[in-house]
Amino acid sequence: MADFHQNGNIATLHNLRSVSSEAMTQELTNFARTRRISLILPSLYSELEADALNNIVEELAQVPYLHRIIIGLDRANRDQYAYALEYFSRLPQEHVVIWNDSPRQKAIMGRLEAMGLNPAEPGKGKNVWTCMGYLMACQDSAVMAIHDCDIVTYHRDMLARLVYPVTNPNFPYQLSKGYYPRIGGGKLNGRVTRLLVSPLLIALQKVIGSRDYIDYLRSFRYPLSGEFAMRTTVLPDLRIPSDWGLEIGVLSEAWRNLARKSVCQVEISDAYDHKHQELSQEDAAAGLNRMSTDICKAIFRKLAADGTVFTPNVFRTLKATYYRSALDLLESYYNDAAMNGLNIDRHKEEQSIELFADNIIKAGDTFLTFPSETPFIATWSRVHAADPDLMRDMLMAVAADYEDITGGPSKG
């Protein structure tokens, strides 16, 4: 992927293989003396039992420029939280494990619920939002990065390339989004990006006409990547979706809040693979079935907020246009994969397209039936205005959870 193409909408920063990882790490170490960098890792407890996270932690232990690592731990009991503290203790950087299921954290969430500000549902969005609140309460970092904990091809160079654009003081970027080819196991992966988002955006342009927002989303080579970094000044007014629309939601917030010259995408890997979601054709509340619906709703909501009028006829036309566009792209993907010695199961790919087409209608029906539905979690600016002590109390709750297990003060 070592080209130098620019789309003219957002900056694309390529890996032209002309700078060593050691040189980039040294630059980041110098920048970090005045611009501290923190990393957020949203994790399920089950990921501590997998090989991917073990390798990620080993790689992160060799990163000299990180000031703090914040691990948001979901679906863990007390004993599992204690194990997580031991698991991450090999990290030499300041780090903290936020036990999201602890009685103290639940009490914090209860205060938010009493004010009508509690995140709508548990999941990655809520986990990331909580970690962001903790980071802001620390008030000591200039740059925040996030990546998933299930990356089986992880290398610390991914993080270096991800944070470099927003850490370099000579660059104007406030948000950087990682991109990469999704390949693994001899297959071309990334079904939701390839078979839903890309053809859906093409179809939207045909059905509702050209929109700056659609052009903006189409500029991203991998809009659903879970890897992004931003300057912490952006965080207080960032609205985080609680559903599967998280990645699209963050890009939409950047579209709303930032100038185009403040946003970039950066190539962070030659080959990327992580845990794969099942299609879950029989269960609309799980897997790619749920994910595709949530992503469609996120895009429809944003377009409606910018003045697009949707009707049942529009969604029916959009489904038909999407279906044709997706099949056309599938032919290109098939040929691309074949030329590179990779496999694509065309039958399963077409099954995915058929499911996604149906979910465009489902998402449209939900949008029309519940036009005021919003999965967004309240911004931390609003939370702070409603309860100025909550962020401080969150810090104290995390420290108290740590002390209960170890008997000593937190190192985060």
From TrEMBL:
Family matches, as InterPro entries: Nucleotide-diphossugar_trans (IPR029044)
Identification of the protein by name: Glycosyl transferase
Keywords, ordered alphabetically: Transferase
Protein source organism: Marinibacterium profundimaris
One example GO MF annotation: transferase activity
